[in-house]
Design a protein that fits this description.
The chain has 1 helix and 10 strands. It is of the alpha+beta class. The chain folds into 2 domains: 31 residues; 95 residues, Rieske [2Fe-2S] iron-sulphur domain (Rieske Iron-sulfur Protein). The strands form 3 sheets. The protein has a 4-stranded antiparallel beta sheet with strand order 5-6-7-8, with no helix packed on it. A 3-stranded antiparallel beta sheet has the order 1-10-9, with no helix packed on it. A 3-stranded antiparallel beta sheet has the order 2-3-4, with no helix packed on it. FE2/S2 (inorganic) cluster binds next to loops.
């Protein structure tokens, strides 16, 4: 079998396998990636220990309960809904600019969750934070 014959057979075989899967909605590569939710958590009240892990270091961040929590410095923390308002990909904290960035299509949000640019139009919901010792409370 030469190269042309191989690709002709594989290409036809892949189409034969994927087409029915796409029609049935089974193949994720065929979907429009709408599986992630852009809905922000509403009633929120939980505590994170900041003495270890990502939040022990300035610029660190983590996602907990669909909220991205970021440490600006020892006394300043941010909390906004993690799901990008475009298609729901979790945003990352960018410490250099104190903003949130979506790695999927590049939307950017301010430290308070306001949409700055990129795809999507909505803002990320912002949550309250309160620090007591090493306990950071995130609440709505
Ligand atoms: S999912 Fe965030 S910019 Fe598209």
């Amino acid at each position: 079998m030469n190269r042309k014959e191989f690709f002709a057979k594989v290409g036809f075989g892949a189409a034969t396998v994927l087409l029915p899967a796409c029609i049935a909605g089974l193949a994720t590569s065929c979907s429009s990636n709408n599986e992630e939710s852009t809905t922000a958590p509403t009633t929120v009240d939980f505590i994170i220990d900041i003495s270890t892990g990502s939040l022990a270091t300035d610029g660190g961040f983590l996602v907990s309960k669909n909220i991205v929590v970021a440490r600006v410095d020892a006394t300043t923390f941010l909390a906004v809904a993690a799901a990008c308002t475009h298609e729901g990909t979790n945003v990352n904290y960018v410490s250099a600019s104190k903003t949130f960035h979506c790695p999927n299509h590049g939307a950017n949000f301010s430290s308070t969750g306001n949409h700055l640019n990129g795809p999507g139009t909505g803002n990320l919901k912002q949550y309250n934070v309160s620090l007591s010792g090493n306990s950071l409370r995130i609440y709505s």
